Structures are given as structure tokens and as C-alpha cells.
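JOB MANIFEST
job_type = single_chain_structure
chain_count = 1
residues = 96
[input]
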Amino acid sequence: MTGLYIGLALILLLTIAVGLVRVLRGPTATDRMLAAQLFGTTAVAILLLLGQAGNSTAIWDVALIFALLAAVAAVTFVRRRNIDTDSHQEGNRGHH
């Protein structure tokens, strides 16, 4: 069963490689952020699989921390996009 967990973790690592292409190519900041969210989610899944394979609860704790950080990153991105959009719209109002 350990081999299965490690095999699945390697497959998930390939999805991170594919996501890296999306980060590099874009075309928009939202595409890049979604790819970064893919990294966070996949990293959590990989850590959970490796923790299960090695029967290590410490790795599960690290996966939990990564999940929390991914949620904070998503909220930060959305708030920043809203601030940038609001300031852009205010700038356009002043020119009309």
C-alpha cells in the first residue's frame, strides 16, 4: 500500500509541473493565482499521502499549515484585486 501512496504522490507532482507552465505563461494574474492555488492544494495532498505512507502524523500537521496558508493567500489575492480594481475605476472617473 505504501507504494501506491508514493506513486500517487509522484503523479500529483506531475500536476505541479503542468501548473508551473500556467504560472509562467499566464496570460492573466488570475490564471497565475489559480495555478498557485493548485500548488497549495496539490502540496497538501502530497504531504497527506506521504504522511500516510510513512505513518507520520507530523507531516499531516505540516499539510494542515499549508492548507491554512493557501486559504490566506487566496483571500489576500482577492482583496488585492478588489483594491486594484477600485483604484483603477476611481482613476477613470477623474478623467471624464
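[summary]
The mean pLDDT is 84.
Residues 57-94 form the longest helix (38 residues).
exit_status = 0
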